[in-house]
Specification:
329 residues; TIM Barrel; two-stranded parallel ribbon; 12 strands; 17% strand; disordered N terminus; binds flavin mononucleotide
Length: 329
């Protein structure tokens, strides 16, 4: 089986809350696009500010996301997240069904597959992490209980669209939107063991398991407030990778070299790119050629302009033409 990598496109080109992933394959360090598109389905839980009738968003808890995190509002100002309401246990099945309906809708709309989003502090993560989940019912407390909601969602989505169309994304070691866990290594392992079991029961594997790494030192800056070391992170990823019985994808702070290295050393089957994909419209070509990459401009990531930060990054040929013209001046 060829080594493979994936290019991850963040939700810049799609209305929130969805992301699109264009797969590429990497054989002997060559990056190639595969024409396959997955859509990410998620419920933001307490990270939602747009609620019908101004109702409180749902979560595993009544606690609001702390003021450490701010949300960019349409008028360009930063707001705080509203207080959520903890879902009653009798309401949970209905929310699970929203995921399977969303998955069915996506396949009907022509997507090849679904990535269930259980990362980055959204609803599933709000159930998984003991730093947020303060429930005392069957959905809180033990790891078994905190994984219950996720397992219900995976089973429902698998039964709606078929296991071969379903992937899952998690970030046990990331504390985005306050979603921290006291034991990320074990949380990740527990999720993986349960997914392995589902795969054994249905006799087939998910498309892939996608793990976002905190990359404590990626691009010279900290992505997570959680103190950690590169060694600790590398060990965690290796442990999860060994435990998962299927295709393992990593993302978070990957350069071309780190992506090739991760695949070559067996730490990942697939690698996804976010920020570099935004700033390089021809990222695959540049990775293949080992050409210089456009630097991304953080301040235009969420611009409201339809062009700036979206479609104005130059293609390689344009960048080279610009350079040639420049040198004549
Ligand atoms: C502009 C932008 C928007 C993003 N939006 C989301 C989002 O809505 N939900 C999410 O889970 N991740 C989001 N991400 C995170 C990406 O999915 C990805 O995990 C992250 O960029 C790490 O990969 P990278 O280091 O290659 O950029 C976003 C990233 C960027 C740069």
């Amino acid at each position: 089986m060829p080594h493979s990598a994936i290019i991850c496109c963040s939700n810049k080109l799609f209305s929130n809350p969805s992301s699109c992933y264009k797969k590429i394959h990497m054989e002997r360090s060559f990056f190639v696009i595969i024409p396959s598109t997955n859509i990410c389905i998620l419920n933001p839980g307490n990270a939602s500010v747009y609620q019908p009738g101004g109702a409180a968003p749902i979560s595993s808890t009544n606690k609001a996301i702390s003021n450490r995190w701010r949300i960019l509002m349409p008028d360009g100002t930063y707001g705080t997240y509203p207080a959520p309401r903890a879902l009653g246990s009798s309401e949970i099945q209905e929310v699970v069904e929203h995921y399977s309906q969303a998955a069915l809708n996506a396949i009907r709309a022509g997507f090849d597959g679904i990535e269930i989003h259980g990362a980055h502090g959204y609803l599933i993560d709000q159930f998984l992490k003991d730093g947020i989940n303060d429930r005392t019912d069957d959905y809180g407390g033990s790891i078994e209980n905190r994984c219950r909601f996720l397992m219900q969602v995976i089973r429902a989505v698998v039964s709606a669209v078929g296991v071969e169309r379903v992937a899952f994304r998690m970030s046990p070691a990331i504390d985005h939107l306050d979603a921290a866990d006291s034991d990320p290594l074990n949380l990740g392992l527990s999720v993986i063991e349960r997914i392995n079991k589902i795969q054994q029961q249905v006799g087939a594997k998910l498309t892939y398991l996608h793990v976002t790494q905190p990359r404590y030192t990626a691009y010279g800056q900290t992505e997570s407030g959680r103190p950690g070391t590169e060694d600790e992170e590398a060990q965690m990823i290796k442990t999860w990778r060994r435990a998962y019985e299927g295709t393992f994808m990593c993302s978070g702070g990957f350069t071309r070299e780190l992506g090739i290295q991760a695949v070559a050393e067996g730490d990942a089957d697939l690698v996804s790119y976010g920020r570099l994909f935004i700033s390089n419209p021809d990222l695959v070509l540049r990775l293949k050629l080992d050409a210089p990459l456009n630097k991304y401009i953080r301040k235009t990531f969420y611009s409201h302009d339809p062009v700036i930060g979206y479609t104005d990054y130059p293609f390689l040929c344009e960048a080279n033409a610009g350079k040639a013209q420049h040198s004549r001046l």
